[in-house]
Amino acid sequence: MRSSAQPERRRFERAPITTHVEFELTNSSSGPSRIRRHMANISTGGLFISTQEPIRPGTRMVVRFELPSNKHRVIAISRVSYVKKGTGLGVEFLGLDDEDREEIEAYIETLKSVSRVS
Known about the structure:
The protein has a 6-stranded antiparallel barrel. The protein has one domain (about 15-115): Thrombin, subunit H. The protein is an alpha+beta fold and about 120 residues long. The chain has one helix at about 100-115; strands at about 15, 20-25, 35-40, 45-50, 60-65, 75-85, 90-95. It contains 1 helix and 7 strands.
């Protein structure tokens, strides 16, 4: 049994990111289907979108964004894995091609090398 005092374990290394993300809900029967918001962090497993939109866990979506380092455009089939009410959505990539995964890894590595230098 996990205690709430235990540190959160992540499968993927995350990096801060400040860029727009556009997401399109693929299994929504009402409301806007395309929404543009800001990302707070990213990993090869997913991202966190800053939004107050009432979207339920399990909702599938297509996310589109550009990495700030090289303007590489990523498009990925995803799903909402958790919601932080009033803060945003944790989104898991379900379909991420190899090139996009490599570009995200390179972006994270770039940030790590910059932080080691400063």
